[in-house]
Amino acid sequence: MSERTIIRINHFNLFYDQFHALKDICLEIPEKQVTAMIGPSGCGKSTLLRSINRMNDLIDTVRITGQILVDDQPIYDKGLNLVSFRKKVGMVFQRPNPFPLSVYENVAFGPRLHMKLTKKELHGRVQQSLEDVDLWSDLKDSLDISALDLSGEQQQRLCIARLLAVSPEVLLMDEPCSALDPNATQRVEELIRDLKNDYTIVIVTHNMAQAARVSDQTAYFYLGEVVEIGPTEKIFTTPSKKETEDYITGRFG
Amino acid sequence: MNFLKHRWNDIVEYVMEKVIFLAGIISIAFVVLIFIFLLKEGLSLFKTYSPFSFLFGLSWYPISHPPKFGVVPLFLGSIVVTLGAILIAVPLGVGAAIYIAEVAPRWLREILKGLVEFLAAIPSIVLGFIGLVTLVPIVKEVFGLPTGLTALSGAIMLAFMAMPTIVSIMEDALTAVPESYRAGAVALGATKWQMIWRVLLPAASSGILAAIMLGIGRVIGETMAVMMITGNAARIPTSITQPVRTMTATIAAEMGEAVQGSEHYFALFGIGILLFCITFLINFTASFFIKRKR
Ligand SMILES: Nc1ncnc2c1ncn2[C@@H]1O[C@H](COP(=O)(O)OP(=O)(O)OP(=O)(O)O)[C@@H](O)[C@H]1O
Ligand SMILES: [Mg+2]
After folding, report:
1. Strand B60-61 relative to strand B68-69, pairing
2. How many other CB atoms sit within 10 Å of the CB of residue A42?
3. pLDDT tens digits for A27-76?
4. How far off is chain B from A25, nearest CA to CA, in Å?
5. Residues near B31 by Cβ (< 8 Å), separated by ≥ 6?
6. Tens-digit pLDDT profile for residues A137-184
7. What pLDDT sits at residue B98?
8. Which candidate from B180, B190, B194 shows the least CB-CB separation from A93?
């Protein structure tokens, strides 16, 4: 298992207007591993996740200090090419949000933006991405149906395929299973474990069992701060901070 | 006491039901009666005048001897003015709606929306009058024409009438597109324009289509302002910078002078039938497309 750090968060602070939502976050995220972010509602997990691919740019009230480096490149520098950066760091949202286009067009969306491909190459990429999320065999004959007609699980898989189609390095997932039923959740967790071989994954979850099952490293957040971060096994068995232990046992209990 | 109250409620219920039923029947009856009247009056023309010469006749001379009621120049006049207006109003309206909904900063957005509503509130006759004294001289000057009362002036003015409808309905449609689509596109590295073009417009397409169709509906039905500004010449137009006369304007202009029960009078109703058919066709295609999109 490689231990190269791909994302480095250095003294990162984020304010919504006056509200200090992230406080001096320092984190390292190793390549090709799953990092879980856990913590009570409102502690800033989504905010941090969105900061990692600069989705907070869409909110006018946000101010930040500090820096985040992806592949040693400071992403809050003026010179950053946002378009190719977001190709590298993709995001899966809490509610599946496929575009109201066909299945095929959803997956082809990213490649059409970023790559000059022939029809055949594009098709190959769409097929590969759908295979990677185990949708190809189900959908290969219905690529032109609307993505909105798929089941919730299929929609979420499609949203993941849509990212894979542009060959990202990092996948950010914000409670990707919270809108799915338990069986679908289990299958998507399997998918996440598979994807770990090729991608770095950061996942926010409220489900402690899920964090324990899928992640290698876990960070516990409280009120905008990282309380504790370490190997998942250690966090869940012998956390060094009392707050972490209380939270985890509380959530399991 | 309680029994009486029940009784009373039953009576109210009964009366209300009948009143609503009656209202429904009356409105349907009116539509049917109007249609029958229109058909009866319009078709009376064909007792004395051939339908072929009416539909395909190239000249409209109601007071010559013998009179000619060829509807082609009027039909073409309507087509030229309407198409011109659509060609101007749709791209401008769509562009304005996108700008207001997606690009403009919030304070400007509110101002622009207010302006659009203001434009929609101007009575069409007033807009026609303003067009007459401002637009008409400009068109005359710019194209070096003998008169500015042309199809083009009419088209531009009608475009201004259709635009508020197009802009406000389309802006609603764009604003109603879920935020999650935008986030999804941006997170994939789409620029603002790519996001608008590839996600928002397809997502809002049925609303956009409805906006355009309603805009066109407004343009086709407009009469008085067009009459003021298009020059009122019932000739076959060969260019958009010539005076034309539309079907609606013809009815409005000549109904007063046509003797009731005369051939001329029936011919005007004939135009009415034709207009009815055209509008019906447009509404039908519009609802067909809108339904199919759903
Ligand atoms: N757009 C915003 N404007 C102002 N405050 C915000 C905004 N988004 C989030 N916040 C605040 O920032 C804090 C962190 O929010 P965030 O969504 O990151 O929490 P979270 O840990 O993801 O919570 P949850 O587990 O409920 O998803 C919360 O107090 C929230 O109210
Ligand atoms: Mg969240």
Report:
1. antiparallel
2. 12
3. 999 999 999 999 999 999 999 999 999 998 888 899 999 999 999 999 99
4. 23
5. none
6. 999 999 999 999 999 999 999 999 999 999 999 999 999 999 889 999
7. 94
8. B180
Give the per-residue pLDDT at A232.
94
| Poorest-pLDDT segment among A186-190, A216-220, B120-124 | B120-124
Judge whether residue B5 has pLDDT over 80.
no
* Cα–Cα distance, B24 to A204 (Å, whole number): 57
Cα–Cα distance measured from residue B133 to residue A149, given in angstroms and rounded to the nearest whole number? 55
CA nearest to B203 within chain A:
A100
User: Residue B239: which domain range?
Assistant: 56-293
Task: Give the tokens for residue A78.
Answer: 């003026």
* Residues A53, A58, A62: CA angle, nearest 5 degrees: 90
Q: Is the pLDDT of residue A252 over 80?
A: no
The string of DSSP letters for B60-128 reads EETTSSS-EE--HHHHHHHHHHHHHHHHHHHHHHHHHHHIIIIIS-HHHHHHHHHHHHHHHHS-HHHHH
Ligand 1 cavity residues, CB under 6 Å: A 16, 19, 21, 41-47, 59, 61
Residues 6+ apart with CB under 8 A from B267: B45, B49, B54, B62, B69
The answer to whether B170 touches B94, Cβ cutoff 8 Å, is yes
Which pair of tokens denotes residue B252? 């409005």
pLDDT band at B293 (very low <50, low <70, confident <90, very high): low
Q: Which CATH architecture has domain A5-98+169-248?
A: 3-Layer(aba) Sandwich (3.40)
Q: In terms of domains, do B111 and B249 share one?
A: yes
Contact A109 B198 (CB under 8 A): yes
Mutation site for B-interface testing, chosen from A113, A163, A178 by largest number of B Cβ within 10 Å? A113
Q: How far is it, in rounded angstroms, from Cα B69 to Cα B234?
A: 11
- Find out whether the peptide bond into B66 is cis, omega within 30 degrees of 0: yes
Is pLDDT of A1 > 60? Answer: no
* pLDDT over 70 at B1, yes or no: no
If interface means Cβ-Cβ distance under 8 Å, which residues of chain B face chain A? Answer: 178, 180-191, 194, 198-199, 202-203
**Which chain A residue shows the shortest CA-CA distance from B178?**
A97
Rounded to whole angstroms, how far apart are CA atoms B160 and B226? 12
Domain residue extents for chain A: 5-98+169-248
Provide the number of structural domains found in chain B: 2
* Assigned token pair, A147: 């993505």
**Do B34 and B113 belong together in one domain?**
no
Question: In this structure, what are the phi and psi dihedrals at residue B210, rounded to the nearest 5 degrees?
Answer: -60, -40
* Mean pLDDT, chain A, whole residue set: 92
pTM: 0.80
Tokens of B99: 């700008």
